[in-house]
Write a structure and sequence with these properties.
Rossmann fold, 29% strand, 4 domains, Glucose Oxidase, domain 1, 7-stranded mixed beta barrel, elongated, 11 helices, 550 residues, 7-stranded parallel beta sheet, alpha/beta
Length: 550
């Protein structure tokens, strides 16, 4: 093409002119394509193919919680801490998950702990500790030094469920595996019924120095989820990339802290879900609850997929746009129209993750795609397409939503910060995390964000500040008359001891009086009296001497 006049005449918009190739990149209305293809001045028309970076990337949540800060690029970062992940297992064969410093247990009937049939546990693990190895993504702890212990309590393609007794057993095994390591227990799980046995187990673990962290829940209401609802467990809410609490995140008084939980990209054991059509392959994300299989058929543009296609979708792969109705209805419509697969592309820029809903499954594969990819793919309608979200083992990466995704951000941060402040207790680490969080919503703690969004560097800095020395004990002595006799009133402050020893003229006159800040001495003869008070049993933690004369 010698110039862009034909594109302008067709209502298109030129984006780039590639002079050496005598080519132009442009946005075109669909109706203009056939006219340009028949234009004698146009040699060919093709899709401006999408290209993806084939390198390691950093999910948005990692810098958002300050885990990429240079302060953590030190040799002992993550060392000496352990995160016990109670979930669906760990795909050890994944290219981005460490295979050293990892132990695990196969709970009864759940298969091998170092394999993951539903992907949930591996996604959690990637956020905590995906390796800095030039591929995939990075986690909060990325150098391979963090110790991981895996307790596999879920199995099957949908992860299924487990009893609270299974969770308590897993907690016990976490503690046994930790040894001398500082132990963080990460639980992207929960349920609506509390258990006295479970509560007691987590409180006992907390008293023994364990820091337990759990998902607040994804029902978008005020119901409490357990174990997050126990006082000994940190309850984690989810926020999006703007720092706004997710609509699905539980909002209740138990929420203690928040972290990234929307569109979180991490490791899965599955091959990447793809739509291949017109010579291009688009990477998508499996919609939770959809069948994991491969479907082949001519690609058809289904619009919003708010009908069943009136017979036009039989044997076809249907491209749907997000919006108006829920994902489950769109996929159901495609299936009812005898479509073989559904690819739903976003109605705003970027990708998304979706679900058919709790307990809902479909007999056809369905994936989500970015708006950009969907708008390119729709131009290939009429060509044969392959939609593949087969659940085979692979080095997959997918974006998930949920407080399940927020929880490992907090767990990973806790382990990272604790590794560099190993002299601190679990209570001190917990306190630092909440005090350094970015306050959101109502000032102070609220039901949506807790104390705010977790911040690794800020928590570390807070723990580095030396605690001020205890204030010296102060003493004032006042002369008083009571019924004509001389007395002294001793008032002191700043002692934290359980009791006080009172000295007069160098002799201990009252051993271990209550530390209530007041003692009256007398009656006293005329003379000079010198007083001091000391912490009970101490000769050094004392007030200055004070002298009075009658």
């Amino acid at each position: 093409m010698k110039d862009s006049s034909a594109i302008a005449a067709a209502g298109g918009r030129v984006e780039l002119e590639l002079a050496p190739q005598k080519a132009i990149a442009a946005h075109l209305p669909a109706q203009a394509l056939r006219g340009l293809q028949n234009n004698p001045n146009v040699e060919y028309v093709e899709v401006d193919a999408v290209r993806y970076p084939l390198a390691q990337s950093t999910p948005w949540g990692i810098p958002y919680v300050q885990a990429d800060n240079a302060a953590f690029a030190v040799s002992n970062a993550s060392n000496g801490a352990m995160v016990c992940i109670i979930d669906s297992g760990y795909q050890m064969a994944h290219e981005d998950l460490q295979n050293t410093n990892v132990t695990g247990t196969n709970d009864s009937g759940t298969g091998n702990w170092n394999e993951d049939s539903c992907g949930h546990g591996s996604h959690v693990a990637g956020t905590i500790a995906a390796l800095n190895n030039s591929v995939g993504v990075v986690g909060v702890n990325k150098n391979g030094l963090l110790k991981l212990h895996i307790e596999k309590v879920f199995t099957g393609a949908s992860c299924g469920w487990a009893y609270s007794s299974t969770l308590v057993t897993a907690l016990n095994r976490c503690q046994a595996a930790a040894g001398t390591n500082k132990l963080v227990v990460s639980m992207s799980l929960g349920g609506g019924t509390s258990s006295a046995t479970e509560n007691n187990a987590f409180q006992t673990a907390y008293n023994a120095g364990v820091l337990s962290i759990a998902a607040a829940g994804n029902d978008g209401n005020t119901r409490t989820s357990y174990p997050a609802g126990y006082a000994s467990v940190m309850s984690v809410a989810a926020v999006d990339s703007t720092g706004t609490v997710a609509t699905f995140s539980q909002k209740n008084a138990d929420v203690e802290i928040a972290a990234p939980g929307v569109g979180v990209v991490s490791t899965t054991p599955f091959k990447s879900s793809t739509l291949t059509v017109g010579g291009d392959s688009f990477i998508g994300t499996t919609i939770e609850g959809a069948a994991r299989t491969q479907a082949t058929g001519v690609l058809v543009n289904g619009g919003l997929c708010d009908t069943t296609g009136s017979g036009a979708w039989v044997g076809k792969v249907v491209l749907c746009q997000r919006g108006t109705i829920d994902f489950a209805t769109k996929v159901s419509n495609v299936k009812a129209g005898n479509g073989v697969g559904a690819a739903i592309y976003n109605n705003v820029s970027g990708g998304f993750s979706g679900t058919l809903g709790t307990g809902v499954t479909s007999a056809i594969p369905a994936i989500s795609m970015s708006q950009e990819d969907g708008l390119v793919a729709v131009n290939s309608a009429g060509s044969t397409a392959v939609l593949d979200n087969t659940a085979g083992t692979g080095n997959g990466y997918e974006a998930y939503d949920g407080t399940s995704m927020a929880t490992p951000h907090v767990s990973g941060v806790a382990a990272l910060v604790w590794s560099l402040n190993s002299g601190k207790t679990n209570a001190q680490i917990r306190d630092a995390l909440v005090k350094s969080a970015i306050d959101k919503g109502t000032t102070g703690r609220d039901t949506s964000y807790g104390y705010g969004i977790v911040q690794a560097k800020a928590a570390h800095d807070l723990l580095q500040v030396a605690a001020p020395p205890p204030a010296a004990i102060t003493l004032t002595v006042t002369k008083v008359k009571v019924s004509g006799s001389n007395y002294t009133d001793l008032r002191w402050a700043n002692s934290t001891a359980s009791g006080i020893d009172v000295y007069r003229n160098g002799a201990k006159i009252v051993p271990n009086t209550g530390n209530d800040g007041l003692y009256r001495d007398g009656p006293l003869a005329r003379g000079t009296y010198t007083y001091k008070v000391c912490d009970v049993g101490s000769t050094t933690s004392c007030s200055p001497s004070v002298t009075v004369k009658f």
